[in-house]
Amino acid sequence: MRRFTLKSALVAVSLLVIAGFAVSDGAAGQAREEHDWFPGIRFEQVASGLDQPLFVTFAPGDRESLFIVEKTGRIRRFAGGRLAPEPLLDLRGQVSGGYEQGLLSVAFHPRFQENRTFFVYYTDRRGTVRIDRYQTYPGRYVADPQSRVQVLEIPQPAANHNGGMMAFGPDGYLYIGTGDGGRAGDPWGNAQNLSTLLGKLLRIDVDGGEPYAIPPDNPFVDHPEARPEIWALGLRNPWRFSFDRETGDLYIADVGQNEWEEINLQPAGSRGGENYGWNIMEGAHCYQSRCDAEGFVLPVAEYHHRVEGACSITGGYVYRGRAHPSLRGVYFFGDYCSGRLYAMATPEIAGTAGPLPWTRAAESGAAIASFGEDHDGELYVADLAGGRILRVVAQ
User: Fold this and answer.
1) Which residues pair with 135 in a beta bridge?
2) Containing domain of residue 199, as a range?
3) Is residue 1 part of a domain?
4) What is the pTM of this model?
5) pLDDT tens digits for 297-314?
6) Phi and psi torsions of 15, nearest 5°
7) What is the CATH number of the domain that holds 186?
């Protein structure tokens, strides 16, 4: 994600106009059209009064609760129409809240009801990304601070592009998205460097070792110069990824530099090792003056900053809830700067693996920091600037 305040988002748009790069105007993934597969949506406010909500999710086995991550350092529980007075976790004294830093996501263990374990992804006061493991007190939605275990620490050379998404995949492994280290253009070359965890999608086994083990089928385990945690590379700042809970397909939204925002699709059954091109490519286009796309996985959809009046993609989810059958199988995503929500046809709807058609779905009036699902697959939007959680519903 590029910015966390409306003021800085407007500044970012101005800077992009001033410092724009000349890239190819090819349209391999530019497929915005009107489609009869999309019926239209609206929003219902679910919760308000939050302090910069940045992520929303559920705990497996709990149909009653939503858990809301506040950038400033708390995880709040929402149940029975209200926010619980006591947070699940409060890290406000330990989190760096500036720029693109903060408490960025939470992932509940698939067997949470048994082991009461969850994981948090945050930037500490030194500017280092940390992933920690906690357990709750028995029978309570409150973390035991003595249960904290550091799982992973990733030093950051800059304060932006901290990534921040975690999710358990259908295989039970924990997937972690990391940014390229920040600044413009990946000056350190991290995204294409297999010896660093930056600019990558990681895959670790949190049940096979302490604090984690490497899955034996990770694609670079036998590469002597590669970090074995790496599952995919060539990412700039993957601001939210998700697994389709029905098909297992993985959707990765990657924030662009100056022109193109992109969505990448990794099909279920992938053996990993995909290279999504950054910083050689931006979307389906050369970022560097000359490039060869051979060996890179190109996005299934993208949009241009000028065309959409936008600048920072927020990845979402394929809707698999039951309340709105007309939305099933549609992937929803948004743009933080414009507040616009989009709908994209998945391969099952489009009849192709890509490029995939997408359309403007709604103007949210929100700073779309994240999407989220509840236990039953209903879809939510986190409005960072407005302090709200919105539910997506069919017209």
Assistant:
1) 117
2) 6-394
3) no
4) 0.91
5) 999 999 999 999 999 999
6) -65, -35
7) 2.120.10.30
